Amino acid sequence: MPHYGFGLFMCRNNSPYSSTAIGAMEVDDIISYHDLVTEEKAALQKGMNFGVGKKYSVFLMSLRENAPYADALDPATGMLTFEGHDEPQRRGGPNPKEVDQPLMTPRGSGTENGKFFRAAMDFKSGLRAKPELIKVYEKISRGIWSYKGFFELIDANIVSNGKRKVFKFSLKPVEKKSFGRVVDLPHNRLIPTTVKVEVWRRDGGQCVQCGSKKNLHFDHDIPFSKGGSSLTAANVRLLCAKHNLEKSDKILSVAPWLFASAAAASHIHKLPG
User: Fold this and answer.
1) DSSP assignment of 202-257, as one string?
2) Which letter, b or e, does each residue of 41-66 get, where b requires 16 or more Cβ atoms within 10 Å of its Cβ?
3) For a surface tag, which of 189, 206, 229, 269 has the fewest beta carbons within 10 Å of its beta carbon?
4) Bridge partners, residue 218, by sequence
5) For a pLDDT cut of 70, what percent of the chain falls above it?
6) 25: domain range?
7) pTM of this prediction?
8) Is the dihedral of CA 38, 43, 44, 49 positive or negative?
9) Quick one: CA dihedral 163, 167, 171, 177, positive or negative?
10) How many structural domains is the chain composed of?
11) Where would I find the beta strands (DSSP E) of the chain?
């Protein structure tokens, strides 16, 4: 099993990076493994967890240098390619990195790869009406994770990486709305992992306003809704919950004045003169 740096937070709830917003987690929140476990009510020791949330599954991904699997995010489409995971090393067995990733276990049951592969094939063939919904968390640094949001599993393939055959799962970013509705998410809304890692290092893992290491969030300096980019570190920064909320309050308080000014300007423009 690959090492995801879980141990640092497995028995702790007082991490300096702990979030207090469990149950109300938002996309781009920065969390510890303890937060992740509390949110999912499961000790996610594996990177692939089929049906762990009953109505959804969970992937743990990493795009960091020397990551154990070749995950990839296409910035042009927002599509996530998630590589299948190896089975654990068995006594007397071959190195899992030197053999094809298996569809079935020696006992004949489906591996995690097999479960997700079948779900994707069933959706493509029409045997299931909706694709498997997958909640994705991404690794930012040792023991540090970020909630990436929901994706739909729309395809899967078994491909050769030049040395062996591995699974490649294709996921589309979506947004989960009230009453279980799922809608497509604009691809340029997602902050690429490479940008998050750069921002984390640049801002020293703390709020740029007060230096707090609690309840952190990847924040758009210019809001995405106002045209701010998600694709460059220049427009992304670390903010704690307090300063993120203060920023939101300022935007809401300024908005009515902007609308009023715009309306007045439009009215004056229309006056005969």
Assistant:
1) HTTTS-TTT---SSEEEEESS-GGGT--SS-GGGEEEEEHHHHHHHHHHHHHHHHH
2) eeebebbbbbeebeebbbbbbbbbee
3) 269
4) 238
5) 81
6) 7-190
7) 0.81
8) negative
9) negative
10) 1
11) 30-32, 48-49, 57-61, 72-73, 80-83, 132-141, 144-160, 165-176, 182-184, 216-220, 236-240
- Burial class for 100, CB neighbours closer than 10 Å (0-12, 13-18, 19+): middle
Q: Which region, left, alpha or beta, applies to residue 163 given φ > 0 means left and ψ of -120 to 50 means alpha? A: alpha
Could you tell me which residues are beta bridge partners of residue 182? Answer: 176
Distance (Å, rounded) from C-alpha 242 to C-alpha 216?
A: 9
Higher local confidence (pLDDT), 1 or 49? 49
Could you tell me the CATH number of the domain that includes residue 90?
2.30.280.10
Q: What's the CA gap between 140 and 157, in Å, rounded?
A: 27
Burial of 163 from C-beta contacts in 10 A (0-12 / 13-18 / 19+): exposed
Radius of gyration, alpha carbons of the chain: 21
CA distance 211 to 197: 18
Residues 164-217 have pLDDT tens digits of 999 999 999 998 877 678 888 877 788 888 899 999 999 999 999 999 998 999
Q: Is residue 228, in this structure, part of any structural domain at all?
A: no
For residue 21, with 0-12 CB atoms within 10 Å meaning exposed, 13-18 middle and 19 or more buried, which class applies? middle
Residue 197 lies in a domain: no
- Cβ(218)–Cβ(196) under 8 Å? yes
Residue-level pLDDT at 119: 97
Give the span between the Cα atoms of 90 and 87, in whole angstroms. Answer: 9
Q: Per the domain annotation, does 160 fall within a domain?
A: yes
Q: Are 144 and 206 in contact (CB under 8 A)?
A: no
Position 71 in a domain? yes
